[in-house]
Amino acid sequence: MWLILCVALLFSSPGAAVAEKIELFDSDQQKVVATFDNSEALQAEAQHILDSVSGRVLEFSPSLDHVMIVKIPLTPPKRLVLRSAGIDADIAEMFVIMPKRGGRAPWLILHTKEYETVVVEFARGVQKLKEQVRLP
Q1: What is the Cα–Cα distance from 4 to 42, expressed in whole angstroms?
Q2: Edge-to-edge strand order for the sheet containing 117-122?
Q3: Labelling 50: which of 35, 86, 112, 113 has CA 20 to 30 A away?
């Protein structure tokens, strides 16, 4: 009985805590290079970015080479309605894709509560987000 209780605690508590962390992933290093607490300031910035979504990414397969990716779990999930792009969903997690070199504007990969993936463009700059995750 104790073994079952210990295993249940082992898999429930840490998983919930880790899921709430903001992660910074470097595609060149192929690893998470930093984690941050999911603060109100980061949640507010995520909401501002979501509010500036302008439409779906039109490229067939935008590159994930030479990028920094900020993974932000949204707590609670945020509603995104963009009728022109056929989007009406609760977003549970967002990935801000920021190319290291110029040429391509940052873009988003969104995961909905219904486990769907949506790839979108947004208009807001990423300087404030970069400051919050300590990127130059």
Answers
A1: 37
A2: 31-36, 22-26, 67-82, 87-99, 107-112, 117-122, 53-56
A3: 35
Q: Which distant-in-sequence residues (6+ apart) come within 8 Å of 26 by Cβ?
A: 33, 68
Q: Which amino acid is at 2?
A: W
Say how far apart CA 31 and CA 61 lie, in whole Å: 21
**Angle (CA) 45 61 103, round 5°:** 65
Six-digit token string for 56: 């779906």
CB 72 within 8 A of CB 19: no
Q: Which two tokens stand for residue 131?
A: 């400051």
Q: What is the pLDDT of residues 97-123, one digit of tens each?
A: 999 987 789 999 999 999 999 999 999
pTM for the complete prediction? 0.82
Structure tokens at 60: 């067939």
